[in-house]
Structure formats: structure tokens, C-alpha cells
From TrEMBL, chain A:
Keywords: Cell membrane, Membrane, Transmembrane, Transmembrane helix. It comes from Rhizosaccharibacter radicis. CDD domains: TM_PBP1_transp_AraH_like. This is ABC transporter permease. It is found in: Cell membrane. The keyword Cell membrane applies.
TrEMBL record, chain B:
Keywords: ATP-binding, Cell membrane, Membrane, Nucleotide-binding, Repeat, Sugar transport, Translocase, Transport. GO terms for molecular function: ATP binding. The lineage of its organism: Bacteria, Pseudomonadati, Pseudomonadota, Alphaproteobacteria, Acetobacterales. This is Sugar ABC transporter ATP-binding protein. PANTHER family: CARBOHYDRATE TRANSPORT ATP-BINDING PROTEIN MG119-RELATED, D-ALLOSE IMPORT ATP-BINDING PROTEIN ALSA-RELATED. Gene3D superfamilies: P-loop containing nucleotide triphosphate hydrolases. Residues 21-257, 267-513 form the ABC transporter domain. InterPro entries: AAA+_ATPase, ABC_carbohydrate_import_ATPase, ABC_transporter-like_ATP-bd, ABC_transporter-like_CS, P-loop_NTPase.
């Protein structure tokens, strides 16, 4: 009896305001769903099995970046450097993928991923130990990684890659390898975030850093780790995209960071940190992938596509602040 | 009273190991200002010890030294007979010292069980969390202290009191042998405080040594074994609670006898209604309210924490969405427009001083004149600072704020003075018509309280209508002309001046449903 005033407040009854908030929260999803339905009804190539397969393959690289972004944003940070890392990792991978042979290919893949991880770790060190704001640290490293990629490639596409390396973006017994990588990465990320101590600590760090520290959770370790993970996944994406482009190109990932952040935010990962799940991110990058594909099919110019995507990002953040943010 | 040791009566006969905290001649100063002088005191295991003293008396500095956050300049500290040489927080934690700060630190987006067990996870095969086990563990820990909260509920769905209890559980579940609580009850209503006391008694019976700061006299008598009274950085008396009287404690704290904490209520007859509220329904609540406040009247709002008082006040001021009609001096005001409310003469001193009442990083001058900058803007859009200073000095004098300079940051003032600044800013351009006060004395010491009460009473005597929400019963009863009791966003009763009694307010605050469920 003593506890009744302490007990959880009963859920207030369904009010107009609640319905409004619900509608707003899913406004973007609803609008996009309508767009897709119209597309599916009017265009006969859109809803074919082969096109859906194309979408999945196109989505795979962004899925990796968006998964990295999810880790980072959950701690309350942001990573703007992943687009440049894609370019750098692709160039590094390509430089070592000139010769035939399994050993050379493995070396190329590992070094490409390592390059991404190194930039990610540098981001993490700056944010976690030097206390540089994430926006500044990763914006700086976006330029640094891009510069490194140009230096390493001398500004030229690195082509002449081995067949084995190129097959990374292909199929194995009819199954697309990038899609398999995507599924594995997302599954591992889900387990890490939802089912392990590491994941719980990431939510705690983003949800209330002070409380996390008081509870004995290391802010530094966790912040460092998420940027390193984001860099590593960008490295994987870079290698895959280099294989798909049949060359390592420094500018291969330009602008990809925004697609990744957009996917996470559309999926409900709050930019304030500590809220959202990887499942949401999956919906986020699927929506973006389908939208890209759909706009292409109906011949919308890529220039207009940029405008649409930019507005969608703003819309997603707006919805996040209206639905979740308290009015201060 | 379990054998309490006062500073003066500290005997050499104490058995070794019974002393949890032994301070000898601890001193500390910041920038030449002495904040602790020559503190010598012993606190035993299995006792609850209240540190009483006005804000700035040195209580929190002493807490910081014991919890390893601050190194003393001189003197020694022994914990469980071992001298402390390293002053760092994690070392103190490993010795079993746990501190519960006044500011809560929940993680609102995580579940209750996650909040409770973060940092103490149970990990099984492959590094996976044992969720089920952790949820059960959280339920067990809460049940042990009589809390009935669903461990899987989101933390943000809990009210302040429940959040506080979770925080206390979290801090004490780490094998804490010394627990420092900085005003744990300041945001709890009296019923919730009882619950807190149950937790404290359990900890005491388990052999913990508890140091507790409080400004509430009734609590000191109810919960403590000893009282250590601090003034100007020194412990001037430490004795078993049973040997002290309330007036002694208060007199020691302030260094003078406070004869009257509350001023005599001024009764002004014949004033017309200033504020009229009709069918005001705050978003998220089902009930609506209608009432009015007359000129010179102090209308108290009672109720439990979470009853919706603050929300109602915010709605009247315009910072929270609501429907209904609010009239000031007969003219309706548009809801949701705080700037307009200010122009019409509504002044608001919100509940959460640090978050909404003052801007701690700005100077006193800026804080006091912020709502009136339009009036101080001269030709070319520049601020007339000379004018601002004159008006600020005037109003700070009237509200008796103790400060060093107008450029001092408000964050450096004591809680009581911060609250006076929050109030002073509304007196810069003459009298407000309606003054809204939400928990105006939370976390404020007795001396400053008494001055605030006088100030509020004086304003009412000059014709200001006052809306006062408070969880402090004596304050509500002694200051108000009339009290409305709020529950679930609606009014459950009205008590006139002669019916004002603690039990009557509480009964209404808890509502019939609670009575029926007993």
C-alpha cells in the first residue's frame, strides 16, 4: 500500500495528442510506404524479384555504415568520416590486390579493413581521451582520410585488380556475398547491443554519461570502441565497393556518411543518444535503398535525388525532436 | 538510541572497529576561503547521523572528503580504523563509501532493471547477458525494501520519488558500508519519505554508517541517532538526538534564535479576483480545474509529488499546453504564450531552480534583468547598463540577496540566494500582479527560508496574488490563506484558513481510492 504513489503511473488513456504523436512519429514511414505502393502499382519493373535483389545489393554497403553509425549515435556521438574511410579503404585494398592468389587477396582485404579501423580508432581516441567534440574530430578526419586516399592513389583510380578480389562483390553459389556480409554484421550488432554487457554500457553512456560513470561504466573505453567499430565497418564497406567498382577510387564514398546517419535516424536512433535499436536502423537503410532505387526507376535526376534525401534527413531529425524532445 | 558518540563525549572506551568514520582536525579552504575548519568527529557503524547546518556550512565539502573527491588541506581521516592516504573516488568506493547526490542520475531511456544493475551485469556463456536472472534480481532488491515497481518498466515512466528510490537502491547495493546522503528527501512528499526511512533503517540494521543531510526538523527527530550541527565550516555540536531539542538545533545552526520562522499572515480584505481559472485541463490529464485567487491572497496548492501541481502552474504561465480559460484582472490571457503572460504581470519561480529558475552561468545582473531587456534597450538597440545596474541593486537590496558583486555568476551563490535572485528578477519593473511559486524553499536552509517567507508575505500584503505549490506541510499551512489539494490534475478539496491541518491535507491528497484500497 505504501508503494502505490511510487508505482508506475497508469498509462493515460488514448488521447488526440497521443494519436497525433504516433502519426508524426511514423509520418516518414507512412509517406514512403505510400510512395512505394504507388510505384509498385504503376511501374512493372519495380516489384520484380531481380530488382529487389538489386536493391539488397545496393543497400549492403550503406547497411554496414549505418550499423556503425548506430553504435556511435547511441553513445550520443556522430561519425562524419565514414564516407572518406570508404574511399581510403578501397584504395588501400586495391593497392594490395594487384596480384593473383588467395594470400594476396586476403592481405588486401585485411589491410583495407585495417586502414578503416585505424582512422576509426583515431576518431575514438580524439573523442574519448582528448575530449574533442565528435562533430569536429570526425569532420577533421573526414578530410584527413580523404587526403590519405588521394596521396596513396596519387589521385588516380587503382585498377587491374585480381579476379579473386573482384569476386568479393559477386555471388557465391547464387548468393550475393555483400548481402551475406550485411546480414551477418547486422545480426552480430543486434546481439552486441541487445544482449551483452557492452551493449548495455553503450546505451548507458548515451542515455546519461554521469549515471554511467557513477555505476562504474567506463566512458572512455566505450566511446573509443564505437568509433573504432564504425571505422572498421566503413573499411569493410570500402573493400566491397572497390571490388564492385573494379577499382580503388579515393572519392568512392563521398557523401555516404549522410546516408548512414539518415538510415539510423529514420530508424529511430535518437541523435541525443541512448535510444533506438538496430532493428530500426534496418528499416532505415531499407527505406533509403528502396527510395534510391525507386527514384532511379522513374528517372528522377540524381540531382533531385540529393534534394529529396537531404529533406528526408531533416524531416527525420525534426520528427525525432518533436516526438522525443522535451520543449525547453 | 543505539550508543551514539558525540564529539564531546567521544570515549576512548569504544571497541575497535565500531568506528566507521573518524575525522581528526580536518581543514579545507578554497582560494583562501575556509570552508572546513578543524573538523573532529566520529561516526559509528549501525547508526544514522544527521549533518544539520545552513547551506554553505561545509556539509557537502565534508561529504566530498569522505567520498574521496576532495583532499583535505590538513588533518586525518580514518575509515574503519585505516587511515586514508589516497583521496580518489574509486578508492573510496572500494572501501565501501557510497554517496547519493542531490541531483538524480537516472538513465530515462533504459528499463528499471537496467538502471539498477548497470555496472553489475550478470554475464553467461558467450558473453551474453542473463536477462531473466537480472530482472529477477532487480525485483528482489526492490521487494526487500518494499518497492512495488515493475522491473521492466521504462525508467522515464517513474515519478521523482520512485526514481529517487531506485537511485538510492543502486548506490547502496554495492556493498556500501558508509552511505552519504545529501538531502535525499528534498523532493519527496511525506509519505514517500517514510519509504525512504524504511530503506535507511534496513541499511542501519545491516551495520552501515549513514550520514544524512536534511533541512527538515521532523525528519531529524524521526530518523537519526546523532546530530552533528555545522556552522561556518565547523562542527559546533555533536550529540545523541535524544538529548537535543528542536529549538536548540535550529539556534545552533543559524547561530541565533529564530523566534518566528513564519511571519504573521497579513489579511487584506476586499480585494477583487486577480486570477480566474475556468475548466483548465492540462495536456495529459483527465481532470480540469476552476478556481480564483484574490488580490493579496496566498493560495496554497497541496498534493503528493506527481499530483500535477507543477504542470498546472506551468499551464497558467504558458509553458505547458492546456485547454480552458484563464483570466487576469478580468481579461483573458492566451494560453501558451509565456512572453505575453510576463507582460501582463505574471511572474513564475519554477520548481527546478538550476534548470529553469536561474541561468547559473550568467551574472547576477544578467539574471535579474533578463526578462526586462526590452525596457532597458535604448537608442540604436544597445542596452542601458547603468540603468540596469541601478535597478538590479535596488531589487537585490529589497530581497536581501547576499552577493559580492553584480558580475558574480549566479551558480556561485548558495541555494537560498539563487532562489532570491529567481524571485528578485520579477520585482525589477514594479510589482507583478500574480506570483507563481513552485516549491520555493526546496533545498534551502532555515535562515534563508525565513527571509523568503517574509518576502512572500510582504508581497501579498502589497496586493500581489500568490499561487504557492509546496510539499512542505508547515510552509503550506503557515503561509497560505487557503489551500487547494490537487490529485491527478484535479482539485480534491479546498481548505480554509482555519481548517488547515496536515492530516486534512494529506487525506485529500491521497484521495478516496487509496483509502478504499487499504
Amino acid at each position: 500500500m505504501q508503494a502505490d504513489s511510487l508505482a508506475v503511473r497508469a498509462a493515460p488513456s488514448l488521447s488526440a495528442a497521443k494519436v497525433g504523436r504516433f502519426a508524426l512519429r511514423y509520418a516518414l514511414v507512412i509517406i514512403l510506404a505510400v510512395f512505394l505502393l504507388v510505384l509498385a502499382a504503376t511501374n512493372h519493373t519495380f516489384l520484380t524479384l531481380s530488382n529487389l535483389n538489386v536493391i539488397l545489393i545496393q543497400v549492403a554497403a550503406n547497411a554496414l555504415l549505418a550499423t556503425g553509425a548506430t553504435f556511435v549515435i547511441l553513445t550520443g556521438g556522430i561519425d562524419l568520416s565514414v564516407g572518406s574511410i570508404v574511399g581510403l579503404s578501397g584504395v588501400v585494398g586495391a593497392l594490395f590486390a594487384q596480384n593473383d592468389g588467395v594470400g594476396s587477396c586476403v592481405e588486401a582485404v585485411l589491410l583495407g579493413i585495417l586502414a578503416g579501423t585505424a582512422i576509426g580508432a583515431f576518431n575514438g581516441a580524439l573523442v574519448a581521451f582528448a575530449r574533442v567534440p565528435p562533430f569536429v574530430a570526425t569532420l577533421g578526419n573526414m578530410t584527413v582520410a580523404s587526403g590519405l586516399a588521394f596521396v596513396a592513389s596519387d589521385g588516380q583510380p587503382i585498377s587491374g585488380l585480381s579476379d579473386l578480389f573482384l569476386s568479393i562483390s559477386g555471388e557465391f553459389h547464387g548468393i550475393s556475398i555483400p548481402v551475406v556480409v550485411m546480414v551477418v554484421v547486422v545480426a552480430v550488432a543486434w546481439v552486441l547491443l541487445a544482449r551483452t554487457r557492452f551493449g548495455m554500457h553503450i546505451y548507458a553512456v548515451g542515455g546519461n554519461p554521469h549515471a554511467a560513470r557513477v555505476a562504474g561504466v567506463s566512458l572512455r573505453t566505450n566511446r573509443f570502441a564505437v568509433y573504432a567499430i564504425s571505422g572498421m565497418l566503413a573499411g569493410v564497406a570500402g573493400v566491397i565497393l572497390a571490388a564492385r567498382a573494379t577499382a580503388g577510387i579515393a572519392t568512392n564514398g563521398t557523401g555516404y556518411e549522410l546516408n548512414a546517419i539518415a538510415a539510423a535516424v529514420i530508424g529511430g536512433i535518437s541523435l541525443a543518444g541512448g535510444r533506438g535499436s538496430i532493428i530500426g536502423t534496418v528499416f532505415g537503410f531499407l527505406i533509403i535503398g528502396v527510395l534510391d532505387n525507386g527514384l532511379n526507376i522513374i528517372n528522377v535526376s540524381p540531382f533531385y535525388q540529393l534534394i529529396v534525401k537531404g529533406l528526408i534527413i531533416i524531416g527525420a531529425v525534426f520528427v525525432d525532436s518533436v516526438v522525443n524532445g522535451s520543449d525547453d | 538510541m543505539s550508543g551514539a558518540v558525540g564529539a564531546e563525549i567521544a570515549g576512548a572506551a569504544m571497541p575497535a572497529g565500531a568506528i566507521a568514520i573518524d575525522c581528526a582536525a580536518l581543514s579545507k579552504s578554497y582560494d583562501g576561503v575556509i570552508v572546513l575548519r578543524d573538523i573532529s568527529a566520529r561516526f559509528e557503524r549501525g547508526t544514522v547521523n544527521v549533518l544539520a547546518g545552513e547551506n554553505g556550512a561545509g556539509k557537502s565539502t565534508l561529504f566530498k572528503i569522505i567520498s574521496g573527491q576532495v583532499r583535505p588541506d590538513n588533518g586525518t581521516l580514518e575509515l574503519f580504523g585505516e587511515p586514508v592516504r589516497r583521496f580518489d573516488a574509486s578508492h573510496a568506493q572500494s572501501l565501501g563509501v557510497s554517496i547519493i547526490p542531490q541531483e538524480l542520475a537516472p538513465i530515462p531511456d533504459m528499463r528499471v532493471w537496467q538502471n539498477l544493475l548497470v555496472g553489475r551485469e550478470k554475464v553467461g556463456a558467450l558473453g551474453l547477458l542473463r536477462r531473466r536472472e537480472m530482472i529477477d534480481e532487480a525485483a528482489r532488491e526492490m521487494e526487500a525494501v518494499g518497492l512495488s515497481i515493475d522491473p521492466t518498466a521504462p525508467m522515464r515512466s517513474l515519478n521523482v520519488a520512485a526514481t529517487q528510490m531506485i537511485e538510492i537502491l543502486k548506490a547502496t547495493s554495492r556493498q556500501a558500508r558508509i552511505i552519504l546522503m545529501d538531502e535525499p528527501s528534498s523532493s519527496l512528499s511525506s509519505r514517500e519519505t517514510e519509504q525512504l526511512f524504511r530503506v535507511i533503517r534496513r541499511l542501519r540494521n545491516d551495520g552501515a554508517c549513514i550520514l544524512y543531510t536534511s533541512h527538515r526538523m521532523e525528519e531529524i527527530e524521526e530518523i537519526s541517532d546523532t546530530v552533528a550541527i555545522m556552522r561556518d565550516g565547523a562542527i559546533i555540536r555533536h550529540a545523541p538526538t535524544s538529548t537535543l531539542t528542536e529549538s536548540q538545533i535550529v539556534a545552533d545552526m543559524v547561530g541565533r534564535e529564530i523566534t518566528e520562522l513564519f511571519p504573521d499572515r497579513t489579511i487584506r480584505g476586499g480585494g477583487g479576483p486577480v486570477l480566474e481559472v475556468e475548466n483548465l485541463r492540462v495536456a495529459g490529464y483527465d481532470s480540469s480545474v476552476s478556481f480564483s485567487v484574490r488580490e493579496g491572497e496566498i493560495l496554497g496548492l497541496g498534493g503528493l509529488v506527481g499530483a500535477g501541481r507543477s504542470e498546472m502552474l506551468e499551464a497558467i504561465f504558458g509553458t505547458r499546453p492546456a485547454t480552458g480559460t484563464v483570466r487576469l484582472d478580468g481579461e483573458p490571457i492566451v494560453l501558451g504564450r509565456p512572453a505575453q503572460s510576463i507582460r501582463r504581470g505574471i511572474a513564475m519561480v519554477p520548481e527546478d531552480r538550476k534548470q529553469a529558475g536561474v541561468l547559473t552561468s550568467l551574472s547576477i545582473l544578467d539574471n535579474v534583468t533578463l526578462p526586462h531587456l526590452d525596457g532597458f534597450t535604448g537608442a540604436g538597440g544597445l542596452l542601458d547598463t547603468a540603468q540596469r545596474r541601478t535597478r538590479a541593486l535596488d531589487v537585490l537590496g529589497r530581497t536581501r540577496v547576499a552577493y559580492a558583486s553584480l558580475n558574480q555568476k549566479v551558480g556561485h551563490l548558495s541555494g537560498g540566494n539563487q532562489q532570491k535572485v529567481a524571485l528578485a528578477r520579477w520585482l525589477v519593473t514594479g510589482m507583478p500582479r500574480l506570483l507563481i511559486l513552485d516549491e520555493p524553499t526546496r533545498g534551502i536552509d532555515v535562515g534563508a527560508r525565513s527571509e523568503l517567507y517574509r518576502l512572500i508575505n510582504d508581497l501579498a500584503a502589497q496586493g500581489v496574488a500568490v499561487l504557492l505549490a509546496s510539499s512542505d506541510m508547515p510552509e503550506l499551512i503557515n503561509l497560505s490563506h487557503r489551500v487547494l489539494v490537487i490529485r491527478g490534475g484535479g482539485i480534491t478539496g479546498e481548505l480554509g484558513r482555519h481548517e488547515l491541518q496536515q492530516e486534512a491535507i494529506l487525506r485529500l491528497a491521497m484521495g478516496r481510492t487509496t483509502d478504499a484500497s487499504r
